[in-house]
Amino acid sequence: MSKLGQAKRIIFLKTADGQLFEVDEPVAMEFEIVKSFFDENEDAADDTVVPLPNVSAEPLAGIIEFCKAHVEFRANGAAGKDEVKKFNAEYIKEKSNEQLKELILAANYLNIKEMLDFLTETIANRLKNKSVEYVRAFFGIENDFTPQEEEAVRKEYEWAFEGVDED
Amino acid sequence: MGLNFRNDIWGSWSFSGLDKESEKSIGLSCDDVWGSWSFSSLDNDFLDKESKDSFDQELGGAVDELPMPTFTAIIQDFETDIGGLWGCESEKHNGDQKSFSGLNLVRFQQLKGNLQFDKISIPISSFSQIEIGNGVPYGDNSGCSGNVNVNDGVVCNNEAKEVCFDCGGGGIPHDALFFALGCLGVKDLLSVERVCRSLRDAVRSDPLLWRSIHIYQPLSSKISDDALVKLTGRAAGTLQCLSLVNCCRITDIGLKRVLESNPGLKKLCVPDCLKLSTEGILSNLRAFMSAGTPGIKHLRIGRQMGITDKQFEEFKCLLGEDDNMQLRTRKPQFFGFEHLYPPCDDDRAFDIESCPKCQKLGLVYDCPRESCRAKDHASQVCRGCTLCIARCFYCGCCLEDCEYEETFCLDMLCVDCLKKLVEKSEVCFLF
């Protein structure tokens, strides 16, 4: 592992679609899966390529961008401040639902808790206070209930939805 | 290992795939209304890419030892093979091209704690009985259901909660959505449950989603005793935190029923529940604590009228509150609309205390104003019940040396908040 004073170590990551990423060590160590890879193989050579067979290039690029910024925030002692919130808001603003979903799966696979928490909360915020029809349309979900089932599930907690405004 | 599907309408059909003896082949037989048909040695490609050993091992329940890509690849192969297979065989036997089209949809999907074969859901813990829903169009008589017996236990993986596969295809909720369920409140969970089957099953079958239940507007005025008991039942006894804000239909008896079935409850927050009485809460708490449970550690009762000194002492005793600790860890409590019932996340055991100014029991508030908090002389600290220190009902700051307005409801509103509200044009209802 890198020691103080050494040149910045680069970690090589290879995605499912065969792209090679070069990532600074502190950023790559945000990924629990990469960290444990090196913890288990302590004598791994510096140019070892870590395969990430469940992540493709696009979400990984997004994740690296996010983690890089957060590593810097932490280094500057800005963690938890408005600056971070602003970055997060900007970061998520330009992501479509599809991208967001891919990011979540990738962040889950790479096991980056901080990012996963942030992303799931974002998805949750997009679900909050929405009607069933809106959620189906927004996330492209098909209604696979039979009419009887739908009626049953609707009836069960009907009291909770009385007098709810439509979107 | 083999899969045997029994189906009332179709007679019996079985997968005897993944046989240890016949490597790289699946056998599948089906007795249906048109007679019996069987498949064997279906696809030599199946399992070609993966070693048979690893698949057997996986099906034996050790999937967590396998790298995920292996499993995904197998599943995808399996999907293609089975799908293609059924499609072509059904044409041969039936002549009706439409009849098996639905089976191309057979899909394996790992959901929270469930292994899902698209329409087939297998709870991780038991593999003896599996339901096939009736969504798959089997020929013209769509809507058949039956039991599936799985002999050896298919893929059993408790780690799988965290692992998702999606074999593509529209209409099915993306796995990422299931992660988000943990961040949703009661009302949104109830709403999401109406979206589709897999979300319904995910919401209903995961007690962890219901471990902490907060009921506030707009549900609070609607929830009844029975509804609350049913809702808390979803936690399957794991309920830890229950917060009922202004639930005016909940009675002492309803609360008793909830407490009885949730011995693990640690936090109870029932402010402004008008049908709950101080004595009722106290006797519920007494019964709850004597049942040998770990007990409630945090209680919020809000503006309960007329709590006596004796009741207060008993509450404190039941909650095991230590006076010194309370002073040390106390977070400031603010009055006002903006701070109304934050989630009970502070360490205090009990929200009622005696007002430092009038010594009466009730809710005691600190002042959010910087200048007031800076004062360090105990006698001058801006801290007291709402009768001793008048506060802005919106921001909670004291109204000393500050202009304020009185609203129609006789609440005080400081000028700063008035300006803010005017800007947001929310002020009209106040006057």
Structure description:
The complex is a heterodimer of chains A (167) and B (431). Chain A is mainly alpha-helical. Chain A has two domains: 10-127, Potassium Channel Kv1.1, Chain A (2-Layer Sandwich), CATH 3.30.710.10; 132-161, no CATH class. Helices cover 54% and strands 9% of the residues of chain A. Chain A has helices at 25-28, 32-40, 57-75, 82-93, 97-110, 113-127, 132-139, 147-156, and strands at residues 10-15, 20-24, 49-52. Chain A has a three-stranded mixed sheet with strand order 2-1-3. In chain A, helix 3 runs antiparallel to helix 4 (82-93), helix 3 packs across helix 5 (97-110) and helix 5 (97-110) runs antiparallel to helix 6 (113-127). The longest helix of chain A has 19 residues, at 57-75. Chain A starts with 9 loop residues before the first strand and ends in an 11-residue tail after the last helix. Chain B is globular, with a radius of gyration of 30 Å. Chain B contains twelve helices and 17 strands. Chain B has three domains: 3-162; 173-205, no CATH class; 210-320. Chain B starts with a strand and ends in an 8-residue tail after the last helix. Chain B has helices spanning 52-62, 68-94, 175-180, 186-192, 197-205, 225-233, 252-261, 278-290, 309-319, 323-329, 370-374, 415-423, and strands at residues 3-7, 11-15, 28-32, 35-39, 108-111, 114-117, 120-123, 130-132, 146-150, 212-215, 241-244, 267-269, 298-300, 352-354, 361-363, 404-406, 412-414. The longest helix of chain B has 27 residues, at 68-94. In chain B, strands 4-3-2-1-9-8-7-6-5 form a nine-stranded antiparallel sheet. Chain B is of the alpha+beta class and 431 residues long. In chain B, helix 6 (225-233) packs parallel to helix 7 (252-261), helix 7 runs parallel beside helix 8 and helix 8 (278-290) runs parallel beside helix 9. In chain B, strand 6 and strand 7 form a beta hairpin. The chains are: A mainly alpha (167), B alpha+beta (431). The interface between A and B is large, with 43 and 46 residues.
